[in-house]
Amino acid sequence: MQNLRLRVMRDSDLDQVLVLNTAAVPAVNDLSKDELVELLEWCDVALVATNRDGAVIAFLLSLGSGQPYQSENYRWFESRGVRHQYIDRIVVGESARGTGVGRAMYESVFERARERGASEVTAEVNTRPLNARSIAFHEHLGFRQLGEQETKGGQVRVALLTRPVDG
């Protein structure tokens, strides 16, 4: 993570976060600023990575169990009744890929999950449209697939992933 700084997301980061998020569609869902602000109300982990000039080059949003978030994927994990820490999205810009920033962000999520007493960290990855880079990243970190589901009226198919907090 040479010349990268990991820190808590600030309100002043939101415009840059939205630009990164939009550039990553369809690997992640598009968000309006209002949707992002609402999602941040439920997140207990909201991180950005910045380059030496202070530009946001990666971000991660994660929330614990019991939130009113209506994401189809979050609701699927909630329906299992297992205390979890859900990773809603991670976006790593081109300039930050291969630097270890994604792994560092996930380590922060696992730390938060331990603090909360969660037994697992959960996430989903698109299988249609295919997000092969994210699938490989999650496999490398030890995530395993629990199931699959179609969302967005059948336009998107996701693999539902989990990894034990202490696994």
TrEMBL record:
Q: Which domain of life is it from?
A: Bacteria
List the keywords (alphabetical).
Answer: Acyltransferase, Transferase
Looking up Pfam families in the UniProt record yields: Acetyltransf_1 (PF00583)
Please name the Gene3D superfamilies in this protein's record: 3.40.630.30
Q: Does the keyword Transferase apply?
A: yes
Would the keyword Acyltransferase turn up in this protein's UniProt record?
yes
**Domain N-acetyltransferase, which positions?**
4-166
- What GO molecular function terms would the record report? acyltransferase activity, transferring groups other than amino-acyl groups
Q: Which InterPro entries match?
A: Acyl_CoA_acyltransferase, Bact_Acetyltransf, GNAT_dom, UCP028520
Q: Which PANTHER family does its entry note? A: AMINOALKYLPHOSPHONATE N-ACETYLTRANSFERASE-RELATED, AMINOALKYLPHOSPHONATE N-ACETYLTRANSFERASE-RELATED-RELATED
What is the official name of this protein in its record? GNAT family acetyltransferase
Give the species: Demequina activiva
